[in-house]
Amino acid sequence: MIKILVIEDDTDLRRNIVDLLELEDYEVYSAVDGEDGVRCAKEYKPSIVVCDIMMPKLDGYGVLKQLRNDPESLLIPMIFLTAKTDRQSMRIGMELGAEDYLTKPFTQHELLTAIQTQLSKRNALAQLLRETSRHSHHSDAHYDPHQTDASNT
Fold first, then answer.
1. Looking at 30-39, 57-66, 119-128, which range is the least confident one?
2. Which H helix or E strand runs over 31?
3. What is the pLDDT of residues 54-113, one digit of tens each?
4. CATH of domain 3-138
5. What is the C-alpha separation between 97 and 82, in angstroms, rounded?
6. Angle between the N-to-C axes of helices 60-68 and 34-44, in degrees from 0 to 180, rounded to the nearest 10
7. Is the distance from CB of 61 to CB of 36 less than 8 angstroms?
């Protein structure tokens, strides 16, 4: 089952997102602030993180920095939720490695589409890595470093 971590300090919004995602058959975990979110990400190893930017204790940018600095969470897609719509705020998040932004208020469709897009990208990357690994193993099995083209003639 796909695990999603929702990090949002607004109780009502967090509950609404969790309820929506559970109705879509995702396994959902939630955190009330950035510090709790980082702890949950390390514990539950979600497939994707949906995270508010402006939160107490540790903001969304801090969460993203910590997740990107840990090899186990480095590749977890991050979707930011924000009331900020200025370009500078969006650039900061993108430069830190956020995959997407949703500005508040957002629709259910926007959230679900953003999540599905990131999960599809992640699945495509995993498939590509499996194929690359399979090809390199296949090539290695037939490679004889002592055999040269000249010895085949």
1. 119-128
2. strand 27-31
3. 998 999 999 999 999 999 999 899 999 988 777 888 888 889 889 999 999 999 999 999
4. 3.40.50.2300
5. 16
6. 30
7. no
> Within its chain, how far is the Cα of 54 from the centroid?
19
Residues near 150 by beta carbon (within 8 Å), at least 6 away in sequence = none
Domain spans in the chain, listed from the N-terminal domain onward = 3-138
3-state DSSP assignment of residue 147: coil
Is the pLDDT assigned to residue 152 strictly greater than 90? no
Asked whether the beta carbons of 77 and 48 are under 8 A apart, the reply is: yes
d(CA 98, CA 92): 9
- Burial, 151: exposed, middle or buried (Cβ in 10 Å; 0-12, 13-18, 19+)? exposed
Q: Is the pLDDT of residue 46 over 60?
A: yes
Give 100-104's long-range contacts (Cβ < 8 A, gap of 24+): 104/13
